[in-house]
Design goal:
By secondary structure, the chain is mainly beta. It is built from 1 helix and 12 strands. It folds into 2 domains: 145 residues, no CATH class; 83 residues, no CATH class. Strands 1, 2, 6, 7, 8, 9, 10, 11 and 12 form a 9-stranded mixed beta sheet that branches.
Length: 242
């Protein structure tokens, strides 16, 4: 999609300075800057996970008072070594957790001389569990045409009409960007995976472009905002190259 600028002509004798501030807006878009229209709907945002089955060893522990036959608590862990405080709190409850936390470590050579709660490894066996991994989300790359960046001032110098290029990027090989949607000067737009937007000359406040990429995966990128300010200055020597 290409948005034409109504102020054409005379570019050889004047110079454009462009300031582009890109921010991350978030899918919920909780706050909308003054004078900026809200999108017609919130994009879904990234929602992609991979679930894999992994092998591990399951360990079975008993907690009891030394010298007594009753088992106070049964603990199941998925790691080597003694159950952690978190394991004890989850499987045994707050009361036993507090008692285990407060009791002094046994210093006796003969464990039968110890007092208080004791942990005993009863059994272990192989098991499997599902592990969820977050996959990289789609993104939107922002570039400029007809402009050279001025890194010391976070602006760009343009020798003709500046064009903002939005390129949707899908990191997953089996999927692709369907389109890019957003708001341009308060008006909704939709285009292919690459958008070329001509930027008009603005006042000091500039205007905000909001955009996101939709993927064939079924989700979208996060919503982004670009604050654009374009000013016209005297180009000076018309034969100067930029």
């Amino acid at each position: 999609m290409r948005f034409d600028n109504k102020n054409r002509g005379g570019w050889r004798n004047r110079l454009l300075t462009l300031s582009l501030l890109l921010t991350f807006a978030g899918t919920a878009f909780a706050s909308v800057p003054r004078g900026v229209a809200a999108p017609p709907y919130d994009p879904p945002g990234p929602d992609r996970f991979s679930v894999t089955v992994v092998d591990y060893t399951k360990y079975f522990w008993w907690m009891f008072y030394l010298g007594e036959d009753d088992v106070e608590c049964k603990i199941v862990t998925d790691h080597e070594g003694l159950p952690t405080l978190g394991d004890i709190f989850v499987d045994c409850g707050e009361d036993l957790y507090e008692k285990w936390l407060k009791q002094k470590p046994c210093q006796e050579i003969d464990v039968n001389l110890c007092k208080g709660l004791y942990l005993h490894l009863v059994d272990s066996k192989p098991a499997q569990k599902e592990v969820s991994t977050m996959l990289p989300p789609p993104t939107v790359q922002v570039t400029l045409e007809n402009c050279d960046p001025v890194y010391t001032s976070s602006t760009s110098i343009c020798d003709s009409e500046p064009i903002l290029v939005l390129t949707g990027i899908e990191p997953l090989t089996d999927y692709q960007i369907i389109n890019i949607e957003g708001l341009y000067e308060g008006q909704p737009f939709i285009c292919d995976a690459i958008c070329r937007l001509q930027l008009p000359v603005t006042d000091e406040d500039g205007f905000v472009i909001q955009f996101w990429a939709n993927s064939s995966y079924g989700d979208s990128s996060e919503m982004f905002e670009a604050l654009v300010r374009v000013a016209v200055t005297d180009a000076g020597d018309p034969d100067r190259l930029f």
